[in-house]
Amino acid sequence: MTTNRQLAVWLLAVSALIVVLVVYGGWVRLTRSGLSIVEWNVVTGVVPPLSAAAWESEFAKYRQTPEYQLVNYGMELDAFKFIYYMEFGHRLLGRLAGLLFVVPLLYFLCRRAIPRAHIPAYLGIGLLFALQGLVGWLMVKSGLDDRPQVSHLRLTLHLCCALALLAACLWQALGYLSSAAAAQSVPRTARRLCIWLFAAICLQIAAGGLVAGLKAGHLSDTFPKMFGVWVPAGLWSMQPPLVNLLDNPTTVHFQHRFFAFAVFGLALALWVAARRTALQPGAVLILCLVAVQIGLGIGTVVAHVPLALASLHQAVAVALFAAALFLCHRSYRGYTAS
Most buried residue, 84, 190, 272, 330, by CB count within 10 Å? Predict the structure, then answer.
């Protein structure tokens, strides 16, 4: 196995764990488990409570939070243990992902297996890991003060940081895997559509984070109309108007459900432009994933946001993100001015 191949396998393993973290994080949010651990202990936090007294101490801290007092008042200890373990598992996976990156990185650096020109990229990934942890704690902290839910903006930022980490690791891995492969010609139109589609998918996922944080998915359980009309009232009720795109649940839900069809249009255009090129299989995959994702989104809304369907919706979004990034990388390497 070549050194480049070893680096690629390592980065792909880190990427896989990040995907698990993102999907599991969505499950933590859907089960309202994210505010169960009210402290961030980097060292001692790797061990859950091991005695009845320790559990009672953690439960007493949780009972002081707005979520317990306004949402879960009267919760029994066994129910608290479930949400605690959900959040504990998420934090533990985050620590493991960090270790899976740092330990092999030190090993490869000691062996001088990483090209000197690539070292800044790895330092950047390390900083992204640190930032992700900080944003995650600031997100949790926002739900411990005066309201029983985290800031939807911090939640979305936390999601975007995770995707940035995934993109950085995948891009490096793909570079190593394709370094010895001959680049195939990719037309300029297809390349540009890859970039536009990837950007659109990123925007749509970020909007999905806002929908989740604002619980806007529960607003209307009908499709395609909302509240029985095509254009619901209150879309631009906040001032200044641009604030509605971030803070107005009706606007966020409305634009998220219909921007999905803009993403589908771009995927369709890429499929047409990529025919008989190296991008064709990936373009077909993305078109199918977008269609499935739209169906899952509609099903999630109509079925009142069931846990399994909503989690699958998020998992397919991550798959779309990774597939679009792969096409961008391949089109970048095979770009021609034709």
Answer: 190
- Distance of alpha carbon 312 from alpha carbon 298, whole angstroms: 12
Assigned token pair, 57: 């101490």
Report d(CA 255, CA 152) in Å as an integer.
16
Structural domain spans, the chain: 1-181, 184-338
For residues 332, 333, 337, 338, the Cα torsion angle rounded to the nearest 10 degrees is: -100
- Using alpha carbons, select from 144, 149, 150 the residue that is nearest to residue 65: 144
The SS3 of residue 57 is helix
pLDDT given at position 223 = 93
Phi/psi of residue 229, nearest 5 degrees: -135, 160
H runs (alpha helix) in 147-248: 152-177, 188-214, 244-247
> Which pLDDT value is given to residue 184?
60
CA distances from residue 226 to 33, 206, 294, 331 in whole angstroms, order as listed: 29, 21, 16, 39
Which CA distances in Å does 80 have to 30, 34, 40, 211, 306?
15, 12, 18, 26, 21
pLDDT of residue 43: 73
Q: Which residues of the chain have pLDDT under 50?
A: 1, 179-183, 334-338
Residues 289 and 311: their CA atoms lie apart, in Å, by 15
pLDDT of the residue at 338: 38
CA dist 7 and 5 (Å) reads: 5
Helix (H, G, I), strand (E, B) or coil at 229: strand
Residue 2 has a pLDDT of: 58
Rg (the chain; Cα; Å): 22
Query: Can you read off the two tokens belonging to residue 194?
Result: 């890859």
DSSP secondary structure, 304-326, as one string: T--HHHHHHHHHHHHHHHHHHHH
Enumerate residues 6+ apart whose C-beta is below 8 A from 289: 316, 319, 320, 323
The residues with which 291 forms a beta bridge, in sequence order, are: none
